[in-house]
Amino acid sequence: AIEHTLSIIKPDATRRNLTGAINAKFEAAGLRIVAQKRIHLTKAQAETFYGVHKERPFFGGLVTFMTSGPVVAQVLEGEGAVAKNREIMGATDPKKAAAGTIRAEFAEDIEANSVHGSDAADTAAHEIAFFFAGIEIVG
Ligand code: CMP
Protein backbone atom coordinates (compact mmCIF):
# COMPACT_ATOMS: atom_id res chain seq x y z
CA ALA A 1 0.00 0.00 0.00
CA ILE A 2 1.06 3.61 -0.56
CA GLU A 3 2.10 5.00 2.81
CA HIS A 4 3.40 8.21 4.31
CA THR A 5 6.26 8.40 6.81
CA LEU A 6 7.88 11.24 8.74
CA SER A 7 11.55 11.88 8.10
CA ILE A 8 13.86 14.36 9.82
CA ILE A 9 17.25 15.34 8.45
CA LYS A 10 19.10 16.06 11.69
CA PRO A 11 21.41 18.96 12.68
CA ASP A 12 24.65 17.00 12.05
CA ALA A 13 23.56 16.55 8.41
CA THR A 14 22.23 20.09 7.76
CA ARG A 15 25.49 21.46 9.25
CA ARG A 16 27.52 19.43 6.73
CA ASN A 17 25.29 20.48 3.80
CA LEU A 18 24.01 16.93 3.24
CA THR A 19 20.30 17.70 2.71
CA GLY A 20 20.47 17.20 -1.05
CA ALA A 21 22.62 14.06 -0.84
CA ILE A 22 20.15 12.50 1.61
CA ASN A 23 17.13 13.54 -0.47
CA ALA A 24 18.78 11.95 -3.53
CA LYS A 25 18.87 8.61 -1.67
CA PHE A 26 15.13 8.85 -0.87
CA GLU A 27 14.25 9.72 -4.47
CA ALA A 28 16.53 7.05 -5.96
CA ALA A 29 14.69 4.48 -3.82
CA GLY A 30 11.33 5.62 -5.16
CA LEU A 31 10.20 7.67 -2.19
CA ARG A 32 8.55 11.00 -3.06
CA ILE A 33 9.14 14.07 -0.85
CA VAL A 34 5.55 15.37 -0.59
CA ALA A 35 6.19 17.92 2.21
CA GLN A 36 9.38 19.50 3.49
CA LYS A 37 10.40 22.37 5.77
CA ARG A 38 13.57 23.56 7.47
CA ILE A 39 13.04 24.53 11.10
CA HIS A 40 15.02 25.05 14.29
CA LEU A 41 13.32 23.05 17.05
CA THR A 42 12.88 24.58 20.50
CA LYS A 43 13.78 22.52 23.57
CA ALA A 44 10.06 22.06 24.34
CA GLN A 45 9.32 20.86 20.81
CA ALA A 46 12.21 18.37 20.83
CA GLU A 47 11.17 17.07 24.27
CA THR A 48 7.60 16.58 23.06
CA PHE A 49 8.58 14.92 19.78
CA TYR A 50 10.90 12.45 21.56
CA GLY A 51 8.60 12.07 24.60
CA VAL A 52 8.58 8.25 24.31
CA HIS A 53 12.30 8.31 25.15
CA LYS A 54 12.11 10.61 28.18
CA GLU A 55 13.24 7.95 30.68
CA ARG A 56 16.18 6.83 28.51
CA PRO A 57 19.73 7.80 29.55
CA PHE A 58 20.36 9.47 26.17
CA PHE A 59 17.27 11.74 26.34
CA GLY A 60 19.01 14.91 27.58
CA GLY A 61 21.81 14.61 25.04
CA LEU A 62 19.32 13.87 22.27
CA VAL A 63 17.30 17.03 23.02
CA THR A 64 20.48 19.16 23.16
CA PHE A 65 21.63 17.68 19.84
CA MET A 66 18.26 18.06 18.07
CA THR A 67 18.11 21.75 19.06
CA SER A 68 21.76 22.45 18.13
CA GLY A 69 20.93 23.56 14.58
CA PRO A 70 18.30 23.43 11.86
CA VAL A 71 16.51 20.23 10.90
CA VAL A 72 14.56 19.42 7.74
CA ALA A 73 11.22 17.76 8.51
CA GLN A 74 9.67 15.92 5.60
CA VAL A 75 6.88 13.59 4.61
CA LEU A 76 7.94 10.73 2.32
CA GLU A 77 5.34 8.92 0.22
CA GLY A 78 5.61 5.57 -1.48
CA GLU A 79 4.84 1.87 -1.54
CA GLY A 80 5.56 0.58 1.99
CA ALA A 81 7.19 3.95 2.77
CA VAL A 82 7.64 3.33 6.52
CA ALA A 83 9.69 0.13 6.12
CA LYS A 84 11.39 1.31 2.94
CA ASN A 85 12.64 4.47 4.65
CA ARG A 86 13.99 2.44 7.58
CA GLU A 87 15.87 0.27 5.12
CA ILE A 88 17.38 3.30 3.35
CA MET A 89 18.36 4.89 6.69
CA GLY A 90 20.09 1.78 8.09
CA ALA A 91 20.53 0.86 11.75
CA THR A 92 20.40 3.57 14.46
CA ASP A 93 24.08 2.94 15.23
CA PRO A 94 26.10 3.73 12.09
CA LYS A 95 28.64 1.05 13.09
CA LYS A 96 25.84 -1.50 12.59
CA ALA A 97 24.27 0.10 9.51
CA ALA A 98 24.46 -1.79 6.20
CA ALA A 99 26.74 -0.45 3.47
CA GLY A 100 25.10 2.12 1.21
CA THR A 101 22.56 3.25 3.82
CA ILE A 102 22.31 6.92 4.84
CA ARG A 103 23.62 6.26 8.34
CA ALA A 104 26.52 4.10 7.11
CA GLU A 105 27.58 6.82 4.69
CA PHE A 106 26.83 9.99 6.63
CA ALA A 107 26.16 9.48 10.36
CA GLU A 108 28.77 10.67 12.87
CA ASP A 109 27.71 8.39 15.76
CA ILE A 110 24.66 6.74 17.38
CA GLU A 111 23.29 10.15 18.46
CA ALA A 112 24.30 12.36 15.51
CA ASN A 113 22.93 9.78 13.09
CA SER A 114 21.80 12.17 10.33
CA VAL A 115 18.16 11.07 9.98
CA HIS A 116 15.06 10.05 11.89
CA GLY A 117 12.28 7.95 10.40
CA SER A 118 8.96 6.80 11.85
CA ASP A 119 9.07 3.20 13.12
CA ALA A 120 5.49 2.14 12.29
CA ALA A 121 2.38 3.35 10.45
CA ASP A 122 0.59 4.59 13.60
CA THR A 123 3.71 6.44 14.80
CA ALA A 124 4.06 7.93 11.31
CA ALA A 125 0.56 9.44 11.41
CA HIS A 126 1.26 10.94 14.83
CA GLU A 127 4.70 12.27 13.86
CA ILE A 128 3.46 13.76 10.56
CA ALA A 129 0.67 15.59 12.41
CA PHE A 130 3.27 17.00 14.84
CA PHE A 131 5.06 18.84 12.00
CA PHE A 132 2.56 19.31 9.16
CA ALA A 133 -1.00 20.41 8.46
CA GLY A 134 -2.85 18.41 5.82
CA ILE A 135 -2.75 21.37 3.42
CA GLU A 136 1.09 21.24 3.41
CA ILE A 137 1.24 17.64 2.16
CA VAL A 138 1.09 17.67 -1.62
CA GLY A 139 1.27 14.27 -3.26
P1 CMP B 1 16.09 8.23 16.25
O1 CMP B 1 15.77 7.18 15.26
O2 CMP B 1 15.72 9.64 15.90
O3 CMP B 1 15.40 7.86 17.65
C1 CMP B 1 15.95 8.24 18.89
C2 CMP B 1 17.28 8.90 18.78
O4 CMP B 1 18.04 8.96 19.97
C3 CMP B 1 18.16 8.12 17.83
O5 CMP B 1 17.69 8.21 16.51
C4 CMP B 1 19.52 8.77 18.10
O6 CMP B 1 19.64 10.03 17.46
C5 CMP B 1 19.43 9.05 19.61
N1 CMP B 1 20.22 8.11 20.43
C6 CMP B 1 21.30 8.45 21.13
N2 CMP B 1 21.79 7.41 21.79
C7 CMP B 1 21.00 6.35 21.51
C8 CMP B 1 21.02 4.99 21.91
N3 CMP B 1 21.91 4.48 22.74
N4 CMP B 1 20.05 4.20 21.41
C9 CMP B 1 19.10 4.69 20.57
N5 CMP B 1 19.05 5.99 20.17
C10 CMP B 1 20.00 6.81 20.65
N-to-C SSE string, H for helix and E for strand: EHHEHHEHHEH
What would the average pLDDT be, to the nearest integer? 98
Low-confidence stretches: none
Shape, please? globular
The main sheet comes to:
4 strands, antiparallel
Bound molecules: adenosine-3',5'-cyclic-monophosphate
Strand order of the largest sheet: 2-3-1-4
Radius of gyration: 14 Å
Secondary structure tally, helices: 7
Write structural notes for this entry.
The chain has seven helices and four strands; from the N terminus they run βααβααβααβα. The mean pLDDT is 98. The relative contact order is 0.26. The chain has a four-stranded antiparallel beta sheet. It has helices at residues 11-15, 19-28, 43-49, 59-66, 81-89, 102-106, 121-131, and strands spanning 2-9, 32-39, 71-79, 115-117. It is an alpha+beta fold and 139 residues long. It is 40% helix and 20% strand. The chain starts with a strand and ends in an 8-residue tail after the last helix. The longest helix is centred in the C-terminal third of the chain and has 11 residues, at 121-131. The chain is globular and about 35 Å long. The protein binds adenosine-3',5'-cyclic-monophosphate (CMP). Major role in the synthesis of nucleoside triphosphates other than ATP. The ATP gamma phosphate is transferred to the NDP beta phosphate via a ping-pong mechanism, using a phosphorylated active-site intermediate. It holds the Pfam family NDK. Homotetramer. Its cofactor is Mg(2+). Residues 2-139 form the Nucleoside diphosphate kinase-like domain.
